[in-house]
Amino acid sequence: MTSPGKPKVLVCDDEPQILRALRVILRDAGFEAVPAETAEEALDLVAVRPPDAAIIDLVLPDLDGVELCARLREWSEMPIIVLSAVGEEDSKVRALAAGADDYITKPFGPRELHLTPTEFDLLRLLARNRGRLMTHRELLLSVWGAGYSDDTQVLRAHIANLRRKIEPTSGPRYIRTDPGVGYRFAA
Predict the structure, then answer these.
(1) Is the pTM of this model over 0.85?
(2) Nearest Cα to Cα of residue 124 among 89, 80, 85, 86
(3) What is the DSSP code (8-state) at residue 111?
(4) Contacts of 171 (CB under 8 A, 6+ apart)
(5) CA–CA separation, 67 vs 72, rounded Å?
(6) What is the pLDDT of residues 111-122, one digit of tens each?
(7) 142: pLDDT confidence band, cut at 50, 70 and 90?
(8) Alpha carbon distances (Å) from 104 to 39, 62, 69, 168, 183
(9) Rounded (5°) CA angle 16-110-105
(10) What's the CA gap between 159 and 61, in Å, rounded?
């Protein structure tokens, strides 16, 4: 049963222990896991009630995870993370080319997936408006509401946390700053 208030994350993996671990990690971070053990089950779940994001394994019993990613990308812009024991560069490139937003190699630590619901909402808003300048006020109103419309410190703090979690160590690649105005998602 799904809760109406929590962001939902499709988790497609055929290993029960991974599904259990992700369910706990996501629950502790304020998300609800929507589990699927096969690609077909995942596609059915997404067709009925689209989740806010997806974490999919590369090796599934019925369909390659890259193909699942490509199929999801045909009609959805939700963030997709590929989670796999296959750490080869070619696999990563194929998954990212098929539309994955990130690739995490098993075994993984909870902090690799652990965005807070607010960080997730902020990232989702930026990603859905990819390339478009989102003003401070626009972001604050959309994510926090009218009571925070001028609180740029809150926004800056969350952007800094988000950057620590998703940006490469070489510097901002995805979230670009337009000084004094706002941010844009550049991926």
Answers:
(1) no
(2) 80
(3) G
(4) none
(5) 9
(6) 666 777 788 888
(7) very high
(8) 18, 21, 14, 13, 26
(9) 70
(10) 38
Asked whether the beta carbons of 11 and 82 are under 8 A apart, the reply is no
Residues 27 and 37: their CA atoms lie apart, in Å, by 19
8 Å CB contact between 39 and 10: no
Give the Cα separation of 145 and 155 in Å (integer).
12
SS3 of the chain: helix, strand, coil, percent, to 5: 45, 20, 35
Question: With bands split at pLDDT 50, 70 and 90, how would you rate the model's confidence at 110?
Answer: low
The answer to whether 138 and 125 are in contact (CB under 8 A) is no
CB 2 within 8 A of CB 32: yes
Whether the predicted pLDDT of 18 surpasses 90: no
Q: Shortest CA distance to 113 belongs to which of 124, 125, 102?
A: 102
SS3 171: coil
Mean pLDDT (the chain) is 85
pLDDT(139) > 90: yes
Q: Which of 52, 93, 92 is nearest to 72 (CA)?
A: 52
